Amino acid sequence: xxxxxxxxxxxxxxxxxxxxxxxxxxxxxxxxxxxxxxxxxxxxxxxxxxxxxxxxxxxxxxxxxxxxxxxxxxxxxxxxxxxxxxxxxxxxxxxxxxxxxxxxxxxxxxxxxxxxxxxxxxxxxxxxxxxxxxxxxxxxxxxxxxxxxxxxxxxxxxxxxxxxxxxxxxxxxxxxxxxxxxxxxx
Length: 186
Fold this sequence. Notes:
Layout: E1 2-5, E2 12-15, E3 19-21, E4 24-26, H1 32-37, E5 46-53, E6 57-63, E7 71-77, E8 79-86, E9 97-103, E10 109-112, E11 116-122, E12 126-133, E13 142-144, H2 167-170
């Protein structure tokens, strides 16, 4: 199992070792011992799965502390552009955007720590996304940032006339106006 550190403190790309033969393939999508050996100690408590069609943009979502979530994101079918925005005040990457293509084919996973807004766009005909969370969903702690915040300038790789956005996601404020109680800690 390979862990790749990014320029964003706490945000990792996880590339599992895939064993392929004439029958297909096998890989461990999560192994607590392997994560702990890398200094990543997380107790996951909730798994979520979503299926979406081409052009869907979900996000940018987060939950405020004390209900914030670390997420381990992977794609079961199709391809997405995964987006994370560091919203931890005082972080060297505050307000910066991280993007990575995740697919069933490349089997990469993104470990998004607490203090990041997260979203993705569906680049294939459909995509199924699976993610583990280290905290339970808490409706009263929902937060979000506009997917079209001009200060973030995110290229979702979806033409504007093909984008499918929920009403809720379309009404989130910009980063400078969002509810945010995250402080960067070393």
